[in-house]
Amino acid sequence: MKMNMQALLAVCALSASALAGGVAAAKPYKVYLSMSYIGNDWQAEAANMVKGMAAALGPDKLSLEVQVSGPNAQRQIQQIDAMVQAGANAIVVYPISPTALNQAVKNACEKGVVVVAYDSIISEPCAYNTTIDQDAAGRKPAEWLVKQLNGKGNVVLITGVPGTSVDIARTAAAKDVFAKNPGIKIIAEANGMWSQAVARSELLKILATHTWKDIDGVWMQAGCYTTASLQDEAGIPDNEKKPCAGEGSNGHRIQMLKIGTEVDGANGTYRPMGYRSISYASPPYSGALALKHAVAILDGKKDLPHLFTLPLPLYTSDQVKLCKEGTWKEMSEGCNVFQPSIIANPGWFASIYSVDTPEVGLNAALVGTPETPTK
């Protein structure tokens, strides 16, 4: 009887340990990827890199299941609750709102589930967040645009997915910069949903009531490639194109390359033009790093901060460097845009390199294959 009591106490101790942080959870860990809005290239790429990291860590370490809620906070809450009930050890999440999921996340944490958000954050204190400085992502490009316009001119704003912490922070920061420069006037604003296709549609609506002569500059969370393409279609020469402060899509950065740069691609709309622009990005590897952090916490790592801030990739035209092969070594040496023969989709995001995620590279971003062999 004494031995039975000792065994019971041991089981209770293991259960308490698991509830305290998941450290005693049995392997392979059961991990869920909770995605919200997926209607753009960035989300698909980030999901691929999460899958690539899962493959690199291996099936002996974890199993990964992906669920998509769409831009519906209540549905994402229901899915998170179901994940916990199904025995999740960790949930990696792109939250549709910084606050709406808080109770569901708190309930998950209380049951020993590790919750790590990427790019967009969760404000519940028990959650871990992996993101860039989104305020800087909105503010610095806006400051660059003001400087390009000498503090005076009409600008158009194309924002992101409404309700996310990313869109809220970036848009507020940009508007704060423009408000401090009274010569800058916002003449139109639309939600671009971080999509080249949506950005094009919204810009065409704006151009139905304004002409390019009315517009002096554009601040975009995604769509500078589209902005330059529309000006091409309007017959505006490269040296007269409006400056664009925007996202890190590969097509955008190709356009930022100076004319005469050797680029392997014959598509006339996907060419170097020396486009006066600045390119920033939320790196798509943030989800892969979030998964890596979740597994490290389950393995017992205690010193990870609840807010892990990634470097902000931010490049002007003279800082864009062509990746001719897309190897890990080449990216480690500073290239930040890929040959069109490597990346055919101009909306694909180019900032995929990080010393923190050597397990995932170009193939992970494209098809979910890890950089190193699965162990």
| Overall helicity | 25-40%
Estimated structural class: alpha/beta
Q: Which CATH architecture of one domain is right? A: 3-Layer(aba) Sandwich
Q: Could you name the ranges where pLDDT drops below 50 across 5 or more consecutive residues? A: 1-23
CATH topology of one domain: Rossmann fold
User: What is the CATH C level class of one domain, in words?
Assistant: Alpha Beta
Shape descriptor reads globular
Quickly count the helices. Answer: 12
- Classify the beta-strand content into a percent band: 15-25%
Strand order of the largest sheet: 2-1-3-4-5-11
What is the arithmetic mean of pLDDT?
Answer: 91
CATH superfamily of one domain: Response regulator
Question: How are the elements arranged and paired?
Answer:
Layout: H1 2-21, E1 29-35, H2 41-57, E2 62-68, H3 73-85, E3 90-93, H4 102-110, E4 114-118, E5 128-131, H5 134-148, E6 153-159, H6 165-179, E7 184-191, H7 196-207, E8 217-220, H8 224-233, E9 244-247, H9 250-256, E10 277-280, H10 286-298, E11 307-309, E12 314-316, E13 322-323, H11 328-332, E14 337-338, H12 362-367
Parallel strand pairs: 1-2, 1-3, 3-4, 4-5, 5-11, 6-7, 6-8, 8-9, 9-10, 13-14
Antiparallel strand pairs: 10-12
Helix pairs in contact: 2-10, 3-4, 5-6, 7-8, 8-9
Explain briefly what this protein structure is.
By secondary structure, the protein is an alpha/beta fold. It contains 12 helices and 14 strands.
Can you tell me about this structure?
The protein has a domain of 147 residues: Rossmann fold (3-Layer(aba) Sandwich). It has 12 helices and 14 strands. Helix 2 links the parallel strand 1 and strand 2. The protein is globular and about 60 Å long.
